[in-house]
């Protein structure tokens, strides 16, 4: 019988195991995303005891549509963002609807607003990690986690999370991330 040539010993690509580049001890991607979200929650949990600050009063506690709670949502979708404060051309009904629901649950309670901001920010961080993983699929998970932690803990985000009114910015990024994933998959 003839000797096997070197070419015969090479495995087809479909049989070659992909190298483990995660560097995260075998943690699955959802677990990593959940851990990052938990870290984000802990990082900004100190805001839970804060009151209304800066524009929070104008947007929430002095906004008649928000104070109506759930019954004010129809007006929220038909009027500008700061209808009775400054007028203007801003239109952000999803954010104000969230505030109206929170007002219906706990009227004039900044705690629930801060809790929701921290929760939305934590979820946004998890989606950001998932989006990066889709964009750069063969990158090291430790490196991606470092990027996400740097993003999450950057001081510029403190104002966004600490001001309840800034939920519009958190929601913008939260809903942007899933929209970006199909783009990443097409590339």
TrEMBL record:
<feature type="transmembrane region" description="Helical">
    <location>
        <begin position="21"/>
        <end position="45"/>
    </location>
</feature>
<feature type="transmembrane region" description="Helical">
    <location>
        <begin position="138"/>
        <end position="157"/>
    </location>
</feature>
<dbReference type="GO" id="GO:0030968">
    <property type="term" value="P:endoplasmic reticulum unfolded protein response"/>
</dbReference>
<keyword id="KW-0472">Membrane</keyword>
<keyword id="KW-0812">Transmembrane</keyword>
<dbReference type="GO" id="GO:0035269">
    <property type="term" value="P:protein O-linked glycosylation via mannose"/>
</dbReference>
<dbReference type="InterPro" id="IPR052346">
    <property type="entry name" value="O-mannosyl-transferase_TMTC"/>
</dbReference>
<keyword id="KW-0802">TPR repeat</keyword>
<protein>
    <recommendedName>
        <fullName>Glycosyltransferase RgtA/B/C/D-like domain-containing protein</fullName>
    </recommendedName>
</protein>
<keyword id="KW-0677">Repeat</keyword>
<dbReference type="GO" id="GO:0000030">
    <property type="term" value="F:mannosyltransferase activity"/>
</dbReference>
<keyword id="KW-1133">Transmembrane helix</keyword>
<feature type="transmembrane region" description="Helical">
    <location>
        <begin position="111"/>
        <end position="131"/>
    </location>
</feature>
